[in-house]
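anyone else get weird line breaks when pasting these?? whatever heres mine. first is seq + tokens for prot A
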Amino acid sequence: MAFSLDPAKNDTSVILNFLRAFAAQVVCIGHAWNFGGLGTVYAPTDGVLLFFALSGFLIAYTLDNKSRSPSYGILDYGIERFARIYTAYLPAMLLIGLTTLAVRWYGIDIKADPVDLKTFIGNLLMQQNLPCCLSVGTFGTAGQLTSVAVEFHIYFFVGALYFLLRGKDALGCCLIAAPFSLMPLAYFSNIPGTDRALFALWLLSFASYYVAKHVVQYQRNIAFWCLGFAVTLAVWLIQRVPGQNAYLQQYPMLVMSFFCLVMASQGVRVIPRRLAGLITVAADYSYSLFLIHLTILRLIFSIWTDVTIWRMLFAVIVANVLAFAFALMFERHYHRVSDWIKALLGRPSRRWRGEPTPCVGGRRP
């Protein structure tokens, strides 16, 4: 039996969609609680960790499956990654900048980082907090988007190394890997008090796909994997130290629990179709929610100054509604952007490859 994300065969794709939607909500609600003055929680960091675990696993799946085509190489992969990120990231950056400037123009006090042109361009090029001379600070109310920049650099660094090892376009891969190595390697250092071990988490999850791919061929014992998920998740929760969520020692049990859940879902198909559809809808705007939620929260909290639970709930609801609309306008079109870029460069698009419709979140990352 081969590892599959086909929703007609098992519930794995639905589970991954649920985790993606759950991670986005954890980040949004956690930030609403913190910036809403209700206290301090470290849940947003846990949401980011889950995003990185999902990202590593799904990028490994994507590379493993698509690279089987002789014509698929680093250029196709790079175009797809660029389109996946920037179709929503570019309009989000514009929205964040314009909103911050407009609010300040009307004299409303909103907490935000600099919104000058240099910082904007630096963030647009994913240079925020880059560990070298090209680095800039975060832009406006986009402080959480450094993690997007980290993932973007990881995509190209790991992707280039992957195709280099497969013997495809060695020179091009080296030229890509070199400049994109700075950010991932800086996030492999486990500096105390920082999240500088996120690349290690991503790599652990990346490797877990290849373990899953081989383990799934043997007899499936769903009870064993469910027990493994319960035990490893409990151990992770017990080991988890608030404020130190992003430390390296927290990662093995987190990845193990994620791995066990994936393996358990490979052998079942029990989630009702309607529920799966709702989960997919929530997953489809999770990236958009991550991009713009903090701007929406800070704007609402600047206007509605009373610190109440109702203000926090209202802000979360508004953030979700606007993120859903934002995803409909921008994020959902990234496949078209990818195909358009490929057409300009004379590369075959999905429709010409005869590839099946992606099934993770309706859109495979």
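and prot B, same format (seq, then tokens)
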Amino acid sequence: MTRALYPHERVETVREATAKAGLAALLLTPGPDLRYVSGYDALPLERLTCLAVPAEGAPFLVVPRLELPAAQESPAGSLGVEMVPWDETDDPYALVARRLGVSGGKVGLADRMWAMMTLRFRDAMPGVEQVLAGTVLRELRMRKSPAEVAALREAGEAIDRVHRRMAEFLRPGRTEKEVGRDIHDAILQEGHTTVDFVIVGSGPNGANPHAELSDRVIGEGEPVVVDIGGQMPSGYCSDSTRNYCVGEPPADYRTYFAVLEEAQRVSCEAVRPGVTPEAVDAAGRDLIAAAGYGEYFVHRTGHGIGIETHEEPYIVSGNTEPLEPGMAFSIEPGIYPGAHGARIEDIVVCTEDGYEAMNKTEHGLVVIG
């Protein structure tokens, strides 16, 4: 799986894309860009770790000497990239600049590079214009390979298993924090290496799309929004939202939940090559608005996902870049009237003739107890 996710040819593909974009090089420090290109999940330290991918010439990875063993043991160690260790008294920014030999033009810096490192590179390479590496990498990262889709499928299966265990955790009298701790443990038990987020929004907290776990006690008959996700050993992420009620839910909740369920289905069915993200957003949004709940759908329909939970493409009005096979993103319309709320979220991948959902659990309201 690791070799398929981080193939040897990816570095060469990135180098070719760098040259095509008219950049002299890409400089990638710890973060998602470095992980995507090399598979190296380097520690974000004040000591510089940097993969340099020149438009011409061989790439090289500059690492603190004490981090060299970790770099060699990572997937980057099998890519054939030269590793250049530096010692505590060295200037690694000057080292990168010397080896690149760039005296002008543009260099792409990792989108999440620390400001401290950006400024040090600026001083080390006077006369060089700094731009975002994302101008090159976004086109590659948005289009998932079959191996990446398989990793997202595995992540979807793992988070589905957690949702299927929700009856173990949700019951009246428990606090959101208590339920959240159990879900956190279950996410790890079901195959994730890290937990990225756990949202347990009960009652009025369900009307806050990004509610924090609180000491609020879950009451009988209260709807609960559960939005959970984490990172798998592959480095790829899960993200899924389902809705529960501990006892019989309010009648008005059932009414708008039926609208939401239809809107989520319609949005998913709008996904196919050539369709724009804003058209997918409009499919469900227009239905929700026609039912009288438009003011309560307060966020975009979805976000891309891969080695980050949120990445491109974004499923939102104004995004007119046509969908292509391999693009992966969430479909998660929501309705949040105030006394409670609901959101249904699947991760989907655009296929040659439609879409594939990574999440398979029941979309309807699950009544517990």
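btw re prot B: The chain has a mean pLDDT of 96. The two ends are 41 Å apart (CA to CA).
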